[in-house]
């Protein structure tokens, strides 16, 4: 018995020792080719998916490992991923790894536009990555400004941070200035920033860039047809900072100088670290105050955001809770006047670099047409611009279910609010134009024979009350007798340029409560990775728009005008209030609400045909429902207007609901397909091809803009997007490139123009015409590092955009259809798409010093489909330098538009109220060689000094 006990004790001890020694620990170190430690490298140990991250010194540790054979993978953005097989035979193992620079991130795992994450080289899509280092080389102007660094992406950020345009490969026709993200999806961590889009309500309103962004992944066309909600043109996914094994972060102070000495002050911060028991957190955000690149008498932007995530790792995956609070004011620039169609130059004393042509700051209360009986009013101050608020909370889960099954679910709720208080339009209205008086009231009175708003007009400075000019404008009515209009100054005072500005107060209230979800199941087998799931989103949104005419001087620094009619022997009539606001709520009225649901089911299979060939096939069935209503309206007819005073003309024509509503309830269903193939030549090179048939359902602007006091009796057309691409990817130690030949076709393009009917003082949209465009081209992205510390980058696009079928409706300036016509521009070059666009840069980095210079080239583009006006090519040079002051502290200087380029990014047509770009046909330009027109210049030189403290 004693022998048995002794034997048992020895056996137990032996088992204990074996068990103890079988629990091994891996201690590792990761460096780059220059011997510097790499912080934040991801370590994955399979088959049990144990993970770790290197600390600031490049070290990592994985504990409690049993004796076995493993595959260890090390990856980090900007370095080639490596995988090695190791055998655990002893208690402590030390490993050292050297990661080779991945110049184009072709060995980096991407998660955007794919259901199963993989390295770029093995992907059958055109993918680009902007890492945190490249993000920090950009002046913090906005989302679109950063994305112009991605090859093949056209961006127009001339208006500022918002009201921007982004599109790719000629898929652009409906990406208008007020719906500039029409075909692409702006995402944060894999879900759209906003589910709905309509006039002056786009995703860039609710997105800001700061240190919380780790990288940007972008795909152009291709698999976006089956991986994004109603966005076949591409995906731009901003991925937030993730897990840090040690507590640390960055604090950054920035001070910028721009334009005529305008300032930008910004503070960014991001911190993260472990919370214990495999819990991790990350939090950060920014606050800024920006005077803007152009001259205004108010702060152009101010506000900020806070973002966070909390992550729980477990043996089977992770759970992540995340959120964002955005509370931000910004504005957008309108156009500048120019003359000389062949070589545009600023006109009327304006300047392409500094002129903003926005109304100055003032405080007004304008009656709310929706609630006149209650005496409600809306405060208006154009210095506020757009006040954007967004509260978003989300939950992301990824779990291995066993037997090679994986579950992923990302769900987000958000509550959004955008309040616009700014000016719209800034055209020239000469004092001999009857609109000087006519826009101050409803035209029914004018054409009914009431000319009381004409005669002796007195213009006073709204701030000081001092008289500026006095005119008689009865001669402007001669136009109705087919005679030349005229006016006459009655005193020595003059208005600048003998004109006023054709502008209006632009008041908009937009709200949306949104929920969106992406659920994916993945099953792996020997030769297949099978993904299927559901994606959905629901939005409850509302929109109210009210516009009032405003009297403003037409000059580089506009002033508000208080205007009265002082005819002898008659009562003084006030055409404006004390602030210069006229025709309260009489120019625009839209009051709409809608519920939008988007549901999709998808299936995708990545088939390993051989060790070198992978086939990627996917289908997506999507159904979208738009249900809502829009108020009908009419002028408020009470004698004397809202205040009952017949001598205050400015409140006599306010638009108010009639009680009738036009309802809409339409459903769009479509099936999209995308198939790709990747042939991996070796570990450094691959070829790929893809063909996609995608769809783009209408956005809410179709209902909100196109039906004014008429029934919404038909649904919009689903646009069809067909795309094909063939590309090559090549990755060497000192040279990497990708190039893609593409063909894209866009069909069922609905085109309607914004028009002003002078006969009844109304704004309307012309009947929709359905058109087709086609673009073929070559994109490329390359990096060359001939010697240590020096890198050259070159990316761009050569393309041939064509309007294969294109007709435009000409309403001849009135709602009356008897004089309307349709003009055929089929075969012309597609506007706003350059044939050549590229970025060329040189970077230097050694020890504590870094520097770069970048050349951005934008080729010539037609400003309209008639090809009547061509925007000249331009170049912008950006430069920067940095110095590592200490281990924790660094300083950088960035200069954007170094040589103050006066490039023109956009064109708005003739400089007259209600004009549009399509009106500037070759015939119009020939007949009006000296006419002025409206252009949008790029923003002028901006310099930034940054101090960054890392810990």
UniProtKB/TrEMBL annotation:
<protein>
    <submittedName>
        <fullName>TonB-dependent receptor</fullName>
    </submittedName>
</protein>
<keyword id="KW-0406">Ion transport</keyword>
<dbReference type="InterPro" id="IPR000531">
    <property type="entry name" value="Beta-barrel_TonB"/>
</dbReference>
<dbReference type="InterPro" id="IPR039426">
    <property type="entry name" value="TonB-dep_rcpt-like"/>
</dbReference>
<dbReference type="InterPro" id="IPR037066">
    <property type="entry name" value="Plug_dom_sf"/>
</dbReference>
<keyword id="KW-0675">Receptor</keyword>
<keyword id="KW-0812">Transmembrane</keyword>
<keyword id="KW-1134">Transmembrane beta strand</keyword>
<keyword id="KW-0472">Membrane</keyword>
<keyword id="KW-0732">Signal</keyword>
<keyword id="KW-0813">Transport</keyword>
<feature type="signal peptide">
    <location>
        <begin position="1"/>
        <end position="24"/>
    </location>
</feature>
<dbReference type="Pfam" id="PF00593">
    <property type="entry name" value="TonB_dep_Rec_b-barrel"/>
</dbReference>
<comment type="similarity">
    <text>Belongs to the TonB-dependent receptor family.</text>
</comment>
<keyword id="KW-0998">Cell outer membrane</keyword>
<keyword id="KW-0410">Iron transport</keyword>
<dbReference type="InterPro" id="IPR008969">
    <property type="entry name" value="CarboxyPept-like_regulatory"/>
</dbReference>
<keyword id="KW-0798">TonB box</keyword>
<dbReference type="InterPro" id="IPR036942">
    <property type="entry name" value="Beta-barrel_TonB_sf"/>
</dbReference>
<feature type="domain" description="TonB-dependent receptor plug">
    <location>
        <begin position="122"/>
        <end position="235"/>
    </location>
</feature>
<dbReference type="InterPro" id="IPR012910">
    <property type="entry name" value="Plug_dom"/>
</dbReference>
<feature type="domain" description="TonB-dependent receptor-like beta-barrel">
    <location>
        <begin position="339"/>
        <end position="898"/>
    </location>
</feature>
<dbReference type="Pfam" id="PF07715">
    <property type="entry name" value="Plug"/>
</dbReference>
<dbReference type="Pfam" id="PF13715">
    <property type="entry name" value="CarbopepD_reg_2"/>
</dbReference>
<keyword id="KW-0408">Iron</keyword>
